[in-house]
Amino acid sequence: MIEMAQHLRAICRPHGVPLIVNDRVDVALASEADGVHLGQNDMSLVVARRILGQRAIIGVTVSSSLQAAIAVKEGADYLGIGTVFATPTKEDAKSIIGVAGVRDILASIPSEVPTVAIGGINADNVQRVIYQSQAEENRLSGVAVVSAIVAADHVQTVAQELLHLIRSPPTFIKEVPNKLRPVELLLDQVNNVIKQLALKHPLCHNMTNFVVQNFAANVALAIPIMANNGDEAPELAALGGALVINMGSVMPEAINNYVKAVQAYNACGQPVLFDPVGAGATSLRRRTVQTLMANGYFDVIKGNENEIRVLLGDDTTQQKGVDSGASKSTIPDMIHLARSLAERERNVVVLTGETDIISDGDRTYAVKNGDEYLGQITGSGCTLGTTIAACLAVHREDRLLAALSGMLLYEIASERASGRTDVKGPGTFVPAFIDELNAISKLAQESNDRWTYGARLVFFEKTREASSQTGT
Which residues are tagged catalytic? Predict the structure, then answer.
């Protein structure tokens, strides 16, 4: 091992690349390597520093904010944060912390301390790890990669690809800065989003439960395709539409297909909506949520209160089937849930209920539209997801505006349908609802925004309610 380290040192030094030995302080000392990387079960940093001297580079793996604080205090030159994902090279990893765990640690340490994420990092997830782990005042300096490079047939090509991905903006983020905040300005743009939806008819790829496929196809003001085979996703993603992953029917082969699809759409930079239906109903659904969240980026997550709690890591939430049940939370509680998940995932969260909450972590709004008939027909929540995804496909600059536009289209159409004299109950409501969606689409194409006048929208600052509602 010492001979190998000396050989590697001779290769690295002419290029100015430090050689760091993993775990073995004795090998680092004997080979005159530039430093050592220590795990939590290795020699202490203080002792290693005494042996190797002040000029040695000593890094430490940490998996909690407490471990990070201790390492920084003891003078670690950098931190390896992980294990992020399970990996063959970390079979003894006791704590898989995920991207959210990386973000928590970054938020707890000074930004001048260099950091790398460790564990399961590869070309499929490196941009997402760097993007989603970013804390308010801190971000990763880089990543540590083993298997993705050394197990590759063409090491140099893979290393260059990873470096390119690290240095490039994420393919799945196309938003612009300085997004609209006031209610009135957002509502001024809603009709334009629906106009583009009506004119462009984007593809909406639905991986949804079998119960609602027909309803979703009829409701969507888009070109729907119901394709649950993940092998089709790369070609479908290239057509420029959006993907909906609806977890209503979790079949044995579904999880792998979901992962293939979301990664294909992420790679093409096309939007993905995740509807974690019944996330808290069974242990299988909880595991499926964890797998999907670990393997892809979702532009929008739409769920009821209990589903959002599960995604935030609440192991005590138990759903009866796919229903949320009566909410005991206040509006401020629901705002906190939606905002917390949106901040953690760096995306948009739609929390559905009697009052819907939509947040991107910075801007948060309550939407008080919709009709009670929506709660009496099967699949209304699932088809709302399809509608939102279609809007995401035509408006990438502001995902919150796109999602809000889909929500208002859907919910105002339900109110218009319910008010019709030919609607006597849920059975007559559905065709009237589809008619009103079409009617609003035609108004939007004519640049007639009068249908938005009934929007009931409230803007909430992070500390207090700020803006007023419009409409009645």
Answer: 382
